[in-house]
Amino acid sequence: MDYDVWAPRYARIRAEFGFPFEREVAAADALERLLRPEDRRDPLARLAPRIRGRDAIVVGDAPGAGPPPLWRLPPSPPRPALLAADGATAPCLAAGLVPSVIVTDLDGPVPSEVSASGRGSLVLVHAHGDNVPALERWVPEFPGELAGSWAGPPRPGLIDVGGFTDGDRAAYLAEALGARRILLWAFDFERVDVPDPSARAVKLAKLRWARELLGDLARSSPVPVLRWGLDGSLVPYSTG
């Protein structure tokens, strides 16, 4: 999505959650400092060959869903691109599936993402106002190829193609890079495994935004956005 279109939407999100823009900038500065020179080079050009012209399976982490059953998809070359949203990386690896791309703000089981990095996943690390300690702890640990994103105007070394949570940000990335279709697996906007009531309320509020932003993407993009159900169904994404 063009940044000029996306920016007003994120301004509404920032206002709702009280995200100070100066902290977003500080996190972006930290991420740029931590990335290796080769990981700051032309992020979209490095990501594109992993996604363009392929079905992009965006894997969420809905409770009880597990990894996507790729064997249910009819064979249709080229092979699909697997995009794991943060915590979805671990169940993918457990099933022997190495994501093409991992989209993460480093608040999930990061060691599994480091492991996938060493096995060929390109990890897109997202900087936001309250994850600077995680950036400093984990970015140097990744052995493989990295790219960076943040929630402000695109920079030479950091991208912003839209999206708020890791899952919908992965879908926006797939659309921006010319995926053939976007298949959403294990997306649940109403159930979360968060025991603390206040943290649970914040998580559900973020998921409400993710649901709406995916609806915006489905309505505005020529790329089909489909929900892949546990029963094997593929249906057009709708917030209705």
Q: Could you characterize what this model shows?
A:
The protein is of the alpha/beta class and 240 residues long. It has a single domain (3-67, 78-236), classed as sialyltransferase cstii, chain A (Alpha-Beta Complex). 40% of the residues lie in helices and 16% in strands. It is built from nine helices and nine strands. The protein has helices at 3-17, 21-34, 37-40, 43-47, 89-94, 110-118, 132-138, 166-176, 197-220; strands at 55-59, 81-85, 101-104, 122-127, 146-150, 158-159, 181-185, 225-228, 234-236. The protein has a nine-stranded mixed sheet with strand order 6-5-4-3-2-1-7-8-9. Strand 8 and strand 9 (234-236) form a beta hairpin. Helix 8 runs parallel beside helix 9 (197-220). The protein is globular and about 45 Å long. The mean pLDDT is 95.
Summarize the model shown.
This protein has helices spanning 3-17, 21-34, 37-40, 43-47, 89-94, 110-118, 132-138, 166-176, 197-220; strands spanning 55-59, 81-85, 101-104, 122-127, 146-150, 158-159, 181-185, 225-228, 234-236.
